[in-house]
Amino acid sequence: MKFFLLLSFIGFCWAQYYPQTHCRGTSIVHLFEWRWVDIAKECERYLGPKGFGGVQVSPPNENIVVNDPPRPWWERYQPISYKICTRSGNEDEFRDMVKRCNNVGVCIYVDAVINHMCGTGNRAGTSSTCGTYYNANDRDFPGVPYSGWDFNDGKCNGEIYNYNDANEVRNCRLSGLLDLALEKDYVRGKVADYMNHLIDMGVAGFRLDAAKHMWPGDIKVILDKLHNLNTQWFPEGSRPFIFQEVIDLGGEAITSSEYFGNGRVTEFKYGAKLGTVIRKWSGEKMAYLQNWGEGWGFVPTDRALVFVDNHDNQRGHGAGGASILTFWDARMYKMAVGFMLAHPYGFTRVMSSYRWERNIQNGQDLNDWIGPPNDNGVTKEVTINPDTTCGNGWVCEHRWRQIRNMVAFRNVVGDQPFSNWWDNGSNQVAFGRGNKGFIVFNNDDWALLTTLQTGLPAGTYCDVISGDKIDGNCTGIKVYVENDGTAQFSISNCAEDPFIAIHVESKL
Ligand code: QV4
Ligand code: CA
User: Fold this and answer.
1) Three-class SS of residue 275?
2) Residue 14 CA to its chain's centroid (Å)
3) Letter string b/e over residues 162-182, b meaning 16 or more CB atoms within 10 A of that residue's CB
4) How many angstroms separate the CA atoms of 27 and 25, rounded?
5) Which atom of ligand 1 is nearest to the CA of 113?
6) pLDDT in tens, 139-164
């Protein structure tokens, strides 16, 4: 009995770093700007069956309606109240989505915007997604309610300029957004009430937006007020999974390690560096990835939330710069996402985007504000084409065969160790995950033809990048593993996808 108690204690006190086992899957997908009704359907028809562990949803709380520019995606990062009422849907639709996704083992993680309310530049009115009145000039948000007492004006009356001053970064306004006084019990109570309302519906955890701009101690007090997860789906005593948005590329007063006690942190170095390597910029090459992870100066693997791109840096917001790979660079993007999902480092998040008409002038996209596909501001439905891709302008990277199959690869290999590394000293590399999976990349400008130790049992395997294993057949490349575990790999540098991945469940 004592042993079980110890295990359950470890389980629960580490819960903020790992999703609940009910969330069957080792990756989550950010369905950016999707409507709740569409997410519910996607959980049942795709994410559950394909082994996605969860969905990060866009902020579900009422936000300001911005008309200039017309309905930008970023209006959802300017809260007006904590009513579940946005372009993605109302509370009933949200509740139904959580239930239907949980019922197929796909957990819901809410993007919690709790550092601030709307920008100071907005005047008063009811231009909000639920019609709630607000007066930014008077710091008046009757929908919560918040008043002047609840903001940091007394501590700091301006914007954040100096990222080397930790007080300024926490107490001043990020891009002019009214900064909440999170050291006040009243404000902490309102934020916790909002998050508990979501937890009681069945939400399994949170992305904490702009966490760098909140004191770690204030976050901790709020997290300690959170309820245990809903026992309709989660074991008694389960705690929410937490990942904090902290952009730390080094050189600032604030470091991500300050936030480790609260949960995981977003590791922005990951996507920036991986993009540089796959693009072969600055002399980087894939052979250098042998010590990928903490060896590259990233946070410890059990504190890292990793991704190739996110909703900010895929359009030049936030951090990462020009090296960030996105769906616009599809061939390289699939290699980067494939590498991320095969490698053991960190907890992985896949981006799922919508297309917009870029207008790049001097390296900046003047259309970086464009919101989701819509009809006069009403977000469009996610339609599914006969070939399983998405229509209506939704990119659905998570449905691309190469990415969907690598999400499955990560589930199959579990916690098997990084093994059997090989490289040609340039951009041809390979590595395994114990005796469960193996992946080979050719990012050089010449063919790869070599025999490698895979660590896998002998047999014929279907490559899950070029195809699928369907009814006992491979629709793509076959790989023959000999009794000694070796296999010959041939990858043209002109291949549509110059990488091959096999695992024990793609074996014939
Ligand atoms: C403008 C002026 C300000 C002025 C203000 C007055 O720039 O100087 O004081 O008006 O109101 C939008 C506009 C921005 C405008 C602001 C407030 O782009 O020009 O300020 O609204 O009206 C997203 C977008 C921002 C957007 C914001 C709010 O990226 O452009 O600002 O939503 O709508 C740092 C942080 C990191 C942050 C990242 C973007 O450390 O936490 O910047 N990332 C998260 C989210 C991100 C979001 C926010 C934080 C804010 O991922 O999407 O910003 O919630 O690195
Ligand atoms: Ca703040």
Assistant:
1) helix
2) 20
3) eeeebebbbbbbbebbbbbbb
4) 6
5) 54
6) 999 999 999 999 999 999 999 999 99
- What are residue 422's DSSP bridge partners? 430
Name all contacts of 171-175 with Cβ < 8 Å and 24+ positions apart.
173/116, 173/120, 174/115, 174/116, 174/210, 174/213, 175/119
Give the number of the ligand closest to the Cα of residue 161.
Answer: 1
Task: Compute the distance from residue 175 Cα to the ligand 1 centre, in Å.
Answer: 5
Active-site pick, 38, 168, 209, 397: 209
Report the pocket of ligand 1 as residue ranges, CB < 6 Å.
74-75, 77-78, 113, 119-121, 159, 174-177, 209-210, 212, 245, 247, 312, 317-319
| 173 CA distance to ligand 2 middle (Å) | 7
Distance CA 194, CA 83 (A): 8
The pLDDT tens digits for 208-255 are: 999 999 999 999 999 999 999 999 999 999 999 999 999 999 999 999
Share of the chain above pLDDT 70, in %: 97
Of the bound ligands, which one is closest to the alpha carbon of residue 172?
A: 2
Which ligand is located closest to the Cα atom of residue 32? 1
Give yes or no: 245 in active site. Answer: yes
- Does pLDDT of 12 surpass 80? no
Q: Is 209 an annotated catalytic residue? A: yes
How many residues does the structure list for the chain? 508
Q: Is the dihedral of CA 34, 38, 43, 45 positive or negative?
A: negative
Cα–Cα distance, 10 to 6 (Å, whole number):
6
Residue nearest to atom 29 of ligand 1 (CA): 317
Per-residue burial over 31-48, b if 16 or more Cβ lie within 10 Å, else e, is bbbbbbbbbbbbbeebbb
The CB density around residue 311, as the number of other CB atoms within 10 Å, is: 22
Burial grade of 184 (CB within 10 A; 0-12, 13-18, 19 or more): middle
pTM higher than 0.85 for the full model? yes
